[in-house]
Amino acid sequence: MPAPRDGTSLALVTFLQRVVDVFEDFLGSPLLATNIESNYSVVAQLLTEICDGGIICNTEPNTLHDQVEMSSGLVNKLFNQVGIPHAAPPALGSAASSTGLSHLKSAIAIPWRRPNVRHTSNEVYVDILESLSLLLAPSGRPIRYLARGSILFTSKISGVPDLVLILSAPGGTSSSKALAIQRTMTLPSFHPCVRLSRWKENAGELSFIPPDGKFVLASYETDLMPSQLDQDEVAGKNEKVFVPASVDLRTGLGAKGNEFEAKLRLDTKFAGARASHRSVTELNASRGDANWVVKAGSREVEWKVSTSGKDGSVSGTAVLTGVVMGAPGHNGADDRHNGAAAHGNADKRALSEYYDEATVDDLAKTMAWARSRSLMPRSISVSFTVKGWLASGIRVDSLTVDAKKSRGLGEGVRPYKGVKYVSVSHRGIERRVE
């Protein structure tokens, strides 16, 4: 159904994402069509509570769990027997809504946290996850280096806790911590529970009453480019970026120009993982395992370098070499395979009518190089996961519970706190050849 009026694109996309998050929270992840069909009554209740008459009402899983009845198996079975597969009457969601609303009248002041939360063990966990994206020019100079971060929070605290999370970033002093955070955390986005006025007064301080369970407290971006660099010049010593794993790719090697070499460099402080690239034979890897893999929509060389186990190492340089080949009958095929030698001889005979033998040999080599060049890899990318390190340098200085503002926690209760840092790159480190 088309919307009666124009809306903000960001608001619409965010709303759809929240709907997906709510469905995954109730029906499980990944969200499959079969799960939706088998829990139609739950979906109907959720949609009634989330959006009513075109107005967004509630997208917080905490309160939705108290408003939506999950025991839908009997209802669905009844509808199936009367010939209405996986359908629920419109009044079902309304009835659940009225019941839930009457139950939450006293606690609706905090819409993202369900009332009467009780836990036998009070725990708080903070996970900061950064996804790296680095693009290198053929000269080795970085074109783009960006980190997208998410602060994932897990709250298992009784009552209504009031928390304060303090972050720090490199380059800040006791008097300029806020400036360092503002410079590092660009385009921040926060959960509705965060008090924005506190953040605006003191950047890096997050004051909030958390929802119960797991949620995304904040997200941000960090520009890791050292400076505005000339992409056509070789990067200087102080202009190179720091990553746990870097790659280099050389093509057009060998007598026929149909060989390539890929180098994977692992930093001594970290454990990296793998690199990838086309129709290739004679794969030789100095470390790890390299295989020609055909996946949906792509063909590539998958090179896995272990950094653990008996033969693993967390540092050094690994080299992968290979020979490119075309498909049977393709002009780029190796002259030793699939009758391509006969094709090359035919080219030489045709050229010999116009040029001398030496010129013909040179032209034949040039044509072979050109055919091999069309099959050469254009780029190489690396995927890895590093625990205990963030490219942005952001750290959690402290996480405290404000005993004066908290309610129902219990006197003398000190929640257990855990913090974890993870940096990932899913083919985010890319080196181009051309």
Structure report:
The chain is globular and about 85 Å long. The chain is α+β, with helices and mostly antiparallel strands. It has three domains: 9-104, no CATH class; 123-227 and 389-432, Immunoglobulin-like (Sandwich), CATH 2.60.40.1170; 245-382, no CATH class. The longest helix has 19 residues, at 9-27. The strands form four sheets. It has a nine-stranded mixed beta sheet, covered by helices on one side. A four-stranded antiparallel beta sheet has the order 9-10-15-12, covered by helices on one side. Strands 7-5-17 form a three-stranded antiparallel beta sheet. The chain has ten helices and 18 strands.
Helical content class: 25-40%
Helix count from the secondary structure assignment: 10
CATH class of the largest domain: Mainly Beta
Low-confidence stretches: 84-107, 271-279, 328-343
Proportion in β-strands: 25-35%
Question: What structural class do you assign from the helix and strand content?
Answer: alpha+beta
Question: Strands of the biggest beta sheet: in what spatial order?
Answer: 6-8-4-3-18-16-11-14-13
What is the strand and helix layout of this fold?
Blueprint: H1 9-27, H2 33-38, H3 40-50, E1 51-52, E2 55-56, H4 61-67, H5 73-81, H6 90-104, E3 123-136, E4 142-156, E5 163-168, H7 177-184, E6 186-190, H8 196-201, E7 205-208, E8 213-223, E9 245-253, E10 259-266, E11 274-276, E12 280-285, E13 289-295, E14 298-304, E15 316-324, H9 340-352, H10 357-375, E16 379-387, E17 395-401, E18 416-432
